Amino acid sequence: MSGAARARVVASGRRVLISFAAGLAMGALYWIWDLRAPAPALLGLTGLLGIGLGERAATALGTRIALHRAPPPPSRADAPETAPGCTCVQPSTPR
């Protein structure tokens, strides 16, 4: 496994652990305050699944759009001084 791939796995694992710890903390607070969960467990898990799938779909779509974008225009150094039929004013260069 390359160093970059290993770093992504470690970062992902940390996020999972942080999320799990936050869930345990909220569960403990609900238990301490003797509160009922605002939604049935199945409904809550279905919502979490939807959030996860939506995040993955948005990431995949954003990556796909970024890959299919037009290439950037050539830099000013590569552009000719004047294009045929161009009536624009060229910026002066300091000497």
From TrEMBL:
UniProt KW Transit peptide keyword: no
UniProt xrefs under InterPro entries: DUF1427, XapX_domain
Keyword Membrane: yes
Domain of life, per lineage: Bacteria
Leader peptide range in chain numbering: none
Stretches the record annotates as Disordered: 70-95
Protein name: DUF1427 family protein
Annotated source species: Streptomyces justiciae
Lineage: Bacteria, Bacillati, Actinomycetota, Actinomycetes, Kitasatosporales
